[in-house]
DNA sequence: ATCGTGATTGTTAGC
DNA sequence: GCTAACAATCACGAT
């Protein structure tokens, strides 16, 4: 069973950007539940918590699972892009240009923090698979 | 003090 | 098509 000497996270020092694999729905679910479980039982170690999460994972409704799957699907897409960049970096001898991005936005003007209310009222959403994310991430490039 | 292990399931890539 | 390995996480153990 020891698929690998380590539980995971093998030294990623192999590559400079090391495009990590897209997290699976279960992992996304874990990140959400882990802190909650930890709050409930802070004496648990990762192994025990993982077991608990695994049990909960089977208890979550299929709809919930699907929701995480969608998120995972998005991560997967990002992963593909990440691979492209990674490949590009490794493609030519070019040293990745040392981050061409000019720092992380020094002026966080952010967009209008207004939330278009009036639409879906916080409630019922099982059949309606809506994306609650009102503002997904708006990256305005200057 | 620092690194690595351990457990869960899913997904991805190689053969 | 199947197999192998790796993805996050954090307390605890070993060195």
From TrEMBL:
Q: Which residues bind DNA?
A: 19-87
Keyword annotations: DNA-binding, Nucleus
Comp. bias (Acidic residues): 129-142
UniProt feature, compositional bias: Basic and acidic residues: 75-88
Which residue stretches belong to region Disordered?
Answer: 1-52, 75-142
The primary location reported for this protein is nucleus
User: Which compartments does it reside in?
Assistant: Nucleus
Which portions of the chain have biased composition (kind: Low complexity)? Answer: 89-110
**Stored Gene3D superfamilies:** High mobility group box domain
Q: Which InterPro entries match?
A: HMG_box_dom (IPR009071), HMG_box_dom_sf (IPR036910), HMGB (IPR050342)
Recall the GO molecular function terms of this protein's record. DNA binding
Composition bias, kind Basic residues: at what positions?
111-123
What is the top-level taxon of the source organism? Eukaryota
What Pfam families does the database record attribute to this sequence? HMG_box
Q: Which GO terms describe its cellular component?
A: nucleus
| Keyword Cytoplasm belongs to the record | no
Domain (HMG box): residue spans on this chain? 19-87
Signal peptide annotation: none
The family annotation for this protein states: Belongs to the HMGB family.
| Name listed for the protein in its UniProt record | HMG box domain-containing protein
